[in-house]
Amino acid sequence: MHEPLPKTLPPLGKAAFYDVDGTLVSTNVVHTYAYYAANQGSLRGILRRSLSTLFSLPVFGALDMFDRKTFNEFFYRYYKGLSEDRLHVLAQDLFEDILEKAIYPQAVDLVEEARRVGCRIVLITGALDFSVMPLVRYFGADDLIANKMQFVGGVATGKVIPPIIEGANKADAIRDYCEKHHLALNQSHAYSDSASDYAMLAAVGRPTAVNPDLRLRALANSYNWPILYLK
Question: Is the peptide bond prior to 226 cis by the omega test (within 30 degrees of 0)?
């Protein structure tokens, strides 16, 4: 009597995970908030938020260099008091006025190349989800992993719903996503411009540094990761 043959598992799929700011577009989360600050509320409120953002730029830069999680927790407090409905409406205006023009033309080719080889396209970013949704539609991405603002009574509290998507949490989110969707982590791709995303890049089998900062360029060279410069 023959032993039953073991069942063959279906082949695993793969994904391509793309950081957004600095990788697919030349803008960052501060540009996004500045747009919201200048387009919501009374003239006095607009002026106050715009000046506050301007004077806080050195603090933002220092915190971002020190620790991305601390930066996010501090930065998103500036959203406190903004209307949820208005933020969602402005997200499309933000895309049309700023983000669409800031997309690196070669980023479209980069995404399409991954799609052609059968990758699931996922944008993963520390930006707020509603501000990135127009980019998700533009690139035809399959999914978005992003920060979510807490709203109470339709008003932003300035707090992000945990876990904050940054650093090691990005890597954890990628691992969880691959497990949930039956994707091969070692066959998946990740793209980022920042050394703060080292954990995310190291989590996959096919990392690529895109327009890397100095620290990421050094890391990419030491690990022989591909480096791309998009225009």
Answer: no
In the chain, how many domains are there?
A: 1
Instruction: Give this prediction's pTM.
Output: 0.83
The enclosing H or E element of 208 equals: strand 206-210
- What is the SS3 assignment for 103? strand
The answer to whether the CB of 18 falls within 8 A of the CB of 24 is: yes
Range of the domain at 36: 14-228
Per-residue pLDDT of the chain (231 residues; tens, 9 = 90+): 555 655 555 668 999 999 999 999 998 766 676 676 666 544 444 444 444 444 444 444 444 554 556 666 666 887 888 889 988 888 898 899 889 999 999 999 999 999 999 999 999 999 899 999 999 999 999 999 999 999 999 999 999 999 989 889 999 999 999 999 999 999 999 999 999 999 999 999 999 999 999 999 999 999 999 999 998
The answer to whether position 3 is within a domain reads no
